[in-house]
């Protein structure tokens, strides 16, 4: 399994996600996955490791952040509502209003045990945190 740490994220070069044509509004998912995710202070908090679709609406429900709490540890995953992710002006990374300390109290999950997306209380808890920020 690939480890995601702030140090590794800094060493890997980032290429612009946005195409050269400023009128293009579509972005392939394969360009988004693995991209750095920063908080509003510009600190790298992890990588976007997955995108979850809502099959009823056909829209992206949330992105999944992989964050290693300590060097060498297995990353913990955090669901972040898609509306909470903002593509930075440089077009090289997404940002979200979350502190690194918040990741210790946010409901994360183990990569081997994804939460049931049908669990309405889990979804309300996730959406509630990001709508209050």
Verbal overview:
It is a single chain. With 133 residues, this protein is α+β, with helices and mostly antiparallel strands. It has a single domain (6-131), classed as SH3 type barrels, CATH 2.30.30.240. The chain has helices at residues 6-11, 29-32, 120-131; strands spanning 36-39, 44-54, 59-67, 76-81, 86-87, 94-96. Strands 4-3-2-1-6-5 form a six-stranded mixed sheet. Strand 3 and strand 4 (76-81) form a beta hairpin.
Which features characterize this protein?
single chain, SH3 type barrels, disordered N terminus, 6 strands, about 130 residues, 3 helices, alpha+beta, about 25% strand, six-stranded mixed sheet
Using the alpha-carbon principal axes, give the shape: globular
Q: Which strand order does the major sheet show?
A: 4-3-2-1-6-5
- N-to-C CA distance: 32 Å
CATH architecture: Roll
What order do the SSEs take from the amino end to the carboxyl end, as H and E? HHEEEEEEH
Oligomeric status of the shown chains? single chain
- CATH topology description: SH3 type barrels
Strand content: 25-35%
Name of the level-1 CATH class: Mainly Beta
What's this, in brief?
This protein has 133 residues and is α+β, with helices and mostly antiparallel strands. It is 17% helix and 26% strand.
Summarize the topology.
Elements lengths: L5 H6 L17 H4 L3 E4 L4 E11 L4 E9 L8 E6 L4 E2 L6 E3 L23 H12 L2
Parallel strand pairs: 1-6
Antiparallel strand pairs: 1-2, 2-3, 3-4, 5-6
């Amino acid at each position: 399994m690939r480890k995601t740490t702030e140090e590794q994220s800094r060493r890997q070069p980032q290429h612009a996600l946005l195409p050269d044509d400023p009128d293009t509004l579509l972005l392939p998912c394969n360009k988004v996955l693995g991209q750095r995710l920063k908080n509003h202070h510009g600190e790298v908090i992890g990588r976007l490791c997955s995108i979850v679709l809502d099959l009823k609406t056909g829209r992206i429900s949330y992105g999944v952040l992989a964050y290693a709490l300590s060097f060498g540890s297995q990353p913990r995953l955090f669901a972040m509502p898609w509306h909470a992710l903002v593509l930075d002006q440089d077009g090289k990374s997404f940002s979200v209003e979350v502190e690194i300390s918040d990741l210790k109290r946010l409901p994360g999950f183990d990569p081997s045990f994804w939460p049931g997306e049908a669990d309405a209380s889990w979804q309300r808890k996730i959406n509630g945190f990001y709508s209050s920020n």
